[in-house]
Design goal:
This protein is α/β, with parallel strands linked by helices and about 140 residues long. About 35% of the residues lie in helices and about 20% in strands. It starts with 14 loop residues before the first strand and ends with a helix.
Length: about 140
C-alpha cells in the first residue's frame, strides 16, 4: 500500500500574499481553523509560512500585529512534492521539527498543506492494514 502526500491533502490551501498584516493573517487562520498559513508569490509558489509558533514568538517579543506577515514569516520553507510518499513527509517533519508541510506540484506551485496529524493518521492506517495482513507479527510477539 503506497500512499502519496497528495492523498493527504483534504482541501485547497489557504494563502495570503506579501504585505498582509499579521493581524489579518491570524484572523484568516482563525476563520479557517488552521494552524498555519502559506505566503505565496504572484504565481502561487510558496515563499514562506506563518504558524501558531510564529504568533507566539511575536506576542512574547511584544511585536506589532500590524507588521506585514512577510517581515516575520518563517522563510526557511520546507516543502514536499505531492508525488512523494507519506514516510518521506514524516521524515522531513521530524528532521526539521515542523508540524505543517506545504505540498507543491512539479512547477513548485502550492497545492495543499498537510499537518503532522494527517501524517500520523495515515501511518496508523497503513500499520493497521499491515498488521491485519500479518506483516507486523514481530511487533506483536
Amino acid at each position: 500500500m503506497s500512499l502519496r502526500v497528495l492523498d493527504l491533502v483534504r482541501r485547497p490551501p489557504v494563502t495570503v500574499g506579501v504585505g498582509v498584516s499579521v493581524r489579518d493573517v491570524v484572523r484568516v487562520m482563525y476563520e479557517n481553523s488552521i494552524g498555519s498559513i502559506v505566503i505565496v508569490d504572484d504565481v502561487g509558489r510558496p515563499i514562506g509560512i506563518f504558524t501558531e509558533r510564529d504568533l507566539l514568538r511575536l506576542v512574547a517579543q511584544g511585536a506589532s500585529l500590524d507588521s506585514p506577515v512577510d517581515t516575520v514569516m518563517s522563510r526557511d520553507l520546507v516543502v514536499v512534492k505531492g508525488v512523494e510518499g507519506v514516510v518521506r513527509a514524516a521524515m522531513l517533519m521530524s528532521e526539521h521539527r515542523i508540524r505543517h508541510l506545504p505540498v507543491v506540484d512539479d512547477e513548485g506551485k502550492l497545492v495543499g498543506v498537510i499537518s503532522v496529524r494527517d501524517v500520523v493518521d495515515a501511518l496508523r492506517g497503513i500499520l493497521a492494514v499491515r498488521a491485519a495482513e500479518g506483516e507486523l507479527s514481530l511487533f506483536t510477539a
